[in-house]
Amino acid sequence: MKESETKVRQLLIGEALKYAAHSSPNRSAFVFENKRLSYKQLLNRAQLLAGWLTETGISKGDKIGCLFKNGLSFVEVYFGASLSGGVLVPVNFRLVPNEVEYILDHADVKILFVEEDLLSSIEPIVNKLKKIEQIVVVGEVYPLLNKEVLSYETIFPMNIKGEAEELCDDDAHAIIYTSGTTGKPKGAVLTHKNIYINGMNKSYHGQSKRGAKHLLIPPLFHVAALSLLVTNCLLEGTMVIHREFNPEKVWQTIENEKINSMFLVPAMWNMLFQVRNYEKYALDSMTSCSTGGAICPLELKKKIMSTFKNAGLHEAFGQTEMSPSTTYLSGEESIKEGKAASVGRPSLNVRIRIVDEYMNDVPAGEVGEILYQGPTMMKEYYKNPEATSEAFKGGWFHSGDLVRMDEDGYIYVIDRKKDMIISGGENIYPKELEEVLYTHPYILDAAVIGVPDAKWGETVKACIVLKEDKQLSKEEVLEFCQTRIASYKKPRLIEFLEALPRNASGKVLKTVLKSQVFTEKSEGRIE
Questions:
Q1: In angstroms, rounded to a whole number, what is the distance separating the alpha carbons of residues 173 and 194?
Q2: What are the distances in angstroms from CA 468 to CA 271, 497, 500?
Q3: Could you identify which of 10, 96, 238, 474 might form a hypothetical disulfide with 524, taking C-beta atoms 3.0 to 4.6 angstroms apart as the criterion?
Q4: Hey, where are the domains in the chain?
C-alpha cells in the first residue's frame, strides 16, 4: 500500500484540512482582522511550512514550539507542524521568561516560532535554550545572541513542499502543558486521533451546520480553543479569530460578521454582559453559545439563554488530558427542569465511572471522583512516567474532579478533589457556596477557599468581586447566605477584591488566594 493511501485511512489533523480544501477550496477558512484565508490557501501555506520544517531537519516526533497570540500565523504553524509529523508545543504567552524556559527545555523543543511582540519573553533566556536550533520570528527580525533567527515570511518563497511519511493517528500531535497551579506544569501528550475524535464529538454534540461561522476568542495555546481549529475543518466552516478578548468588539463582530456560534469560558461570558447597552446589537444570527474550561454558574447560564434567544446553550466539561471534552449539555437539555445545573451526559466515544477512594462505583446521587476511558484520552505525560502511572491507575484516567450523577445519567460537578474543604470533620464543596454568591445581584465574581483554622482544621473564606458602583458589607453577605445554605457551609472569612487571579484558561488560581496572608481584622472574621 502506498504511503499516501495509508495516511488517508488515518485520523490525521492534516487530512482534516485536506478534506476541507478538496470540498470547499475557496471558502474562507479563517478570518483575522482584514485578512481572509481560504481552505486552498491555508493548505498551500501549511504544506510549504511542512516542507521547510522537513528540510530543516524536523523528523516525526521532533518538537516545534510556538509562542504566539491568536492570529493566522498560529493556524498556519499548527497545520504545518501536523503535516510535517512534528509535535507542536504551544506556549502560554502570559508566562514569565523562566516559566517559558522550563517548558521549552522540558519539551525538547528544536525549532521555535515566536511573534516579534513576544520576543521579550525569549531574550532574557535565549542563551539557556541549548536544545533550540532555530528561531523563526513573525514580524521584524533582529539578532538574538548566538541563536540563528529567520523571518517567518521568507519561508514561503523557498517553495519547499513536503510531508511526513508513515504518519499514523496514534503518533503524538501536540504537547499541552497544564496550568501548573500546583507545582511544575505537566505536558499532556495528545495524539492526532485524540484531537480528531474530539473534533468529531464537538461537531456531533454542538449541532453546528456545515459552513457555519464561528467566533474564536480564547487563546489558542489552550487545548479547548486549539481543538476548534480541527472542528472548523470538519464542518468546512469559517472561523473569525480575535487576537485578544475585547468584550465590546465581540458584540460588534457578532453583528457585523453574522456569527453563528461562539465559545467562551465562564469568566469571559461574565465580562461580556458588563458592556453597557449590549442589547442594541443584532444577535439573531447566533444559533449556538458554548461554554467550558471552568464551572459555569447557573445564573450565568440563564443570562446567556435569555440574551441569545435564537441560540442553544452547549456546555462542555473536561480537561486537557482528555483533549479536552468529556461531557456535553445541549441547548434542549439546558432548559429541562432540574438539569440546567448539570454539565450534561458523557460525550460520544467517552466512557466514565464515578468511584470512591477505593475505586468502587458509587450509587446514583452520591459524590465520587469521575474517571475516563476512550480514544480522546492522552497518550502520557511527557517524560513523567510516575505521574502517568498515577493518572492511569486501574486502567482509567483519574480526573481529580468530584461529581455526582442522577438517575437519568446527568453529571453535576461538585468540585475539584483538591479544593474540597474539611471543617470540623464536615466535607464542604466551595462550588456550592459560589453558586449561592453568584445569585446576589451585586456580586460579579466569587471564589471560596479553605484556610487553616486552629479550632476546625479549616474554615471557609469567600473572596468576592463586586459589580461596578455596587457596595456590600460582609454582614450583608452573611445575611444573604443565611437562608440559602447550611450554617456550617457559610463563610467565616470574607474578603472583597478588585479581581480574582485567573490563569489563561479562565480558572481561578485558588493557590494564589490561599497564599495571600491577611490579618484577621482585614479579612473580616464573622462568627
A1: 9
A2: 11, 12, 15
A3: 474
A4: 3-190, 245-417, 420-523
Please calculate the CA angle 244-33-308 and round it to the nearest 5 degrees.
Answer: 65
420-523 architecture in CATH?
2-Layer Sandwich (3.30)
Are 93 and 66 within 8 A, CB to CB?
no
Residue 168 DSSP SS3: coil
Q: What is the pLDDT of residue 158?
A: 96
DSSP letter assigned to residue 290: E
What tens digit of pLDDT does each residue of 317-343 get? Answer: 999 999 999 999 987 776 677 787 889
Q: Which residues contact 352 (CB under 8 A, 6 or more apart)?
A: 326, 327, 346, 370, 371, 372, 373, 411
- Tell me the whole-structure pTM to 2 decimals: 0.84
Question: Can you tell me the distance from the alpha carbon of 339 to that of 333, in angstroms, rounded to the nearest whole number?
Answer: 7
Superfamily the domain 245-417 falls into: ANL, N-terminal domain (3.40.50.12780)
Q: How far is CA 345 from CA 32, 262, 353, 414, 447, in A?
A: 35, 21, 12, 15, 26
Tell me what the mean pLDDT of segment 286-300 comes to. 85
Domains 3-190 and 245-417 alike in fold? yes
What radius of gyration, in Å, describes the C-alpha atoms of the chain?
Answer: 23
Lowest-confidence region among 68-82, 104-118, 332-346, 510-524? 510-524
pLDDT tens for 9-21 read 899 999 999 999 9
CATH class entry, domain 3-190: alpha beta
Predicted pLDDT of residue 409: 95
Alpha-carbon distance 229 to 221, whole Å? 12
From CA 47, how far away is CA 457, in angstroms rounded? Answer: 59
Cell numbers describing residue 508: 481561578
Closest alpha carbon to 219 in 250, 263, 253, 181: 263
- Rounded to a whole number, what is the largest CA-CA distance in the chain? 75
C-alpha cell at 136: 523563526
pLDDT per residue over 154-208, tens digit each?
999 999 998 998 899 999 999 999 865 456 889 999 999 999 999 999 999 987 8
Q: Which helix (H) or strand (E) holds 55?
A: helix 39-56
Place of cell 478534506: 19
Task: Report strand pairing: 421-423 vs 426-428.
Answer: antiparallel
Number of H helices, E strands in the chain: 16, 26
* Cα(458)–Cα(461) distance, integer angstroms: 9
